[in-house]
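Each letter names a residue; the fold follows as tokens. Both lines appear below:
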Amino acid sequence: MAARKNVLYLFDVDGTLTPPRQRISEQLRDFLLQQVQPRVRLGLVSGSDYGKIVEQLNGEDVAAKFDYVFCENGLVHYQNGELKSKQSILNHLGETKLQKLINFALNYLSKIELPAKRGNFIEFRSGMINISPVGRSCSQAEREQFVVYDTEHRIRAKFVEALQDEFKDINLTFALGGQISIDVFPTGWDKTYCLNHVAEAKFDEIHFFGDKTVPGGNDYEIFTHESTLGHTVTSPDDTKEQLKKLLNI
């Protein structure tokens, strides 16, 4: 096989390499590491924290095999399994603004009724706040129930509109994250942030694969960025098929 090209393939996780919040299949994992990685460098960029990514990849040993793992949009940066850098939304916003955001979100959540509400509605991460109307403790069946309800009633979209109106004087971005949540982060701390970490590598091409690539989705900014070649995928199987065509595998 020819030497590995100076090219980076970046992947969203949920809906791209795994079903939402589920684990990667052994077949796709082996395909990426055994057939794709010898040809190009591999990176992951997700809004999730490191623990969730490791769980979805079936272990820290698997995560360490990727050239780059960008957690929380790249605010937490791993390279070859080693933590390289970490940003803090608390340091950036300050406690007063952060509490104003959390209090507003909790008040808003208390006034909406859903088919189910569970626990862990607001998750504080290093580089962002994740807000889930149904609660991240929901079961898979409750998650799927919320997806249907949200599609019909625009629960998250209306929530984003309320957040944008309330915090229009604070430089924050509100993006639909995955199936059940909203990611809140300082403007510019979207998935394009991870590109800062690979600038020195001077890749000839950077390809990005994601499923939330329309405006308002948390893949949109990196999908449309001038430094990337964007690919919209519909499932892990679709990701694999697109890779086969791109690399002639």
Notes: The chain has two domains: 7-87+190-247, 89-186.
